[in-house]
Specification:
By secondary structure, the chain is α+β, with helices and mostly antiparallel strands. Bound molecules: histidyl-adenosine monophosphate. Histidyl-adenosine monophosphate binds next to strand 6, strand 10, strand 11 and helix 11.
């Protein structure tokens, strides 16, 4: 019986894992440099952690959460995002006694979305958060670190930062009421999906892709009219900071983000190279969230990026030169073979052997894998306690002693 994988999930293997590991290494190096500490949380949490803060009416909560009752009748949810679990963990572990707290992490998230290229039901995120600062320098730092990471993983890739401010929480609340009224007056022209959001989440209508919705949104009261001077000054400072750091951006007043907890700064790094799932990284400020989750009334800012989407854009060159293949033509020489294995391991030289006692088959595999060197041993080498190293690119070969192999490979490469 063949069992299929669950729709929207995918197995990772070989080069894909190597890409993921490379991404994680670059992320960790950047995080260490700027004193972000890694924080890992469980994959499932009590459902209430997500339902209110993400917005009762957000798509994630309404349609996409994997929620189930366990045998003890606890209502649990596979985490759809990382910000709320990180806040929960920071509260549980009393990490917020000392603020600002800078944390980061990686891991799988779960959303029951309609699968397509770049959109999965289990996917991996990188997540960075700063808890406890409303200094605009923390907005700048969090965006600069995102930009540094994306530029070092995807050099030369066209990625553009979209930026907006939603204003302070009270003003945003006022704006949402005005927007609800406006959309209500134009209800008949809106798509059904948007009509359902008029009361609960009018901001989301602004980023609808439906043509009629776009027409109505284009003449909706603009958010800029409801933003306080203080927010406007902060936004200017943010823009100056990004310019100072040579980060290009576009202002996009329709950028509202999908989760409910944002106010003030919101941003997304987008690319044209991924089709419709074009957002690599998104985040913003969520000043009331920590308090809603039972923590102190302190602000926060952060972002998450989809590792799969980043990996899809990565150029990844396999370093085949570093690997040697091995060929042996008779089982009689296995002790000689195992002596070689020990030597290669002790000297950190990676190797591959296909369990074939046949030069031809091993040579053919080495050529197929495009490796540079093969180490061959037969009767002659066994008798003289030596090994033949053949350079498959040039065709040259030399018979050498075991302890000369490392230097030989270094000299030749
Ligand atoms: P988000 O925009 O929902 O934000 O997700 C962030 C990123 O995760 C997206 O830009 C995308 O790259 C990736 N992503 C989301 N859904 C999927 C999916 N179904 N398949 C593949 N990749 C996906 C958040 O999650 C917020 N917690 C970000 C944040 C952190 N805001 C403040 N701090």
């Amino acid at each position: 019986m063949k069992i299929r994988p669950v729709r929207g999930t995918h197995d990772l293997y070989g080069d894909e894992i190597k890409k993921f590991n490379l991404i994680k290494n670059i992320v960790s190096q950047n995080a260490e440099l700027q004193s972000f500490n890694e924080l890992q949380t469980p994959i499932f949490e009590l459902s209430e952690l997500f339902s209110k803060p993400l917005g009762d009416q957000s798509d994630v909560v309404l349609k996409e959460m994997y929620t189930f009752k366990d045998q003890g009748d606890d209502l649990l949810t596979l985490r759809p995002e990382y910000t709320t679990p990180m806040i929960r963990a920071a509260i549980t572990k009393n990490l917020l006694n000392e603020i600002p707290l800078k944390v980061y992490g990686f891991g799988p998230m779960f959303r029951r979305e309609r699968p397509q290229k770049g959109r999965y039901r289990q996917f991996n995120q990188i997540n960075f958060e700063i808890f406890g600062s409303n200094d605009v320098m923390s907005d700048i730092e969090i965006i600069v670190i995102a930009d540094d990471i994306l530029k070092s993983i995807l050099p030369g890739c066209e990625i553009i930062l979209n930026l907006n401010t939603l204003g302070e929480r009270d003003n945003l609340k006022k704006y949402k009421t005005i927007l609800s009224k406006y959309f209500n007056d134009n209800k008949n022209k809106l798509s059904e999906e948007s009509r359902n959001k008029i009361e609960s989440n009018p901001l989301r209508i602004l980023d609808s892709k439906n043509e009629n919705d776009i027409e109505i949104s284009n003449i909706a009261p603009p958010i800029q009219d409801y933003i306080s001077n203080k927010s406007k000054i902060q936004f200017e400072e943010l823009k100056q900071g990004l310019k100072f750091n040579n980060i290009d951006f576009v202002i996009n007043h329709k950028l509202v983000r999908g989760l409910d907890y944002y106010s003030q700064t919101v941003f997304e790094f987008k690319t044209k190279n991924l089709g419709s799932q074009d957002t690599l990284l998104g985040g913003g400020r969520y000043d009331g969230l920590i308090n809603i989750l039972g923590g102190p009334d302190i602000p926060g800012v952060g972002w998450a990026a989809g590792i799969e989407r980043i990996a899809m854009l990565m150029e990844f060159k396999k370093n085949t030169n570093s690997k040697v293949h091995i060929a042996i033509n008779n089982k009689k020489f296995v002790t000689h073979l195992q002596t070689l294995f020990k030597y290669l391991k002790n000297n950190q030289i990676s190797f591959y052997w296909n369990y074939k006692y046949n030069f031809k088959k091993s040579l053919s595999k080495a050529n197929q894998d495009k490796v540079k060197y093969i180490i061959m041993m037969g009767e002659k080498e066994f008798e003289s306690k030596s090994y033949t190293l053949r350079n498959l690119y040039s065709g040259n070969q030399n018979e050498i002693k075991l302890d000369e192999i490392k230097n030989y490979l270094n000299d030749q490469s």
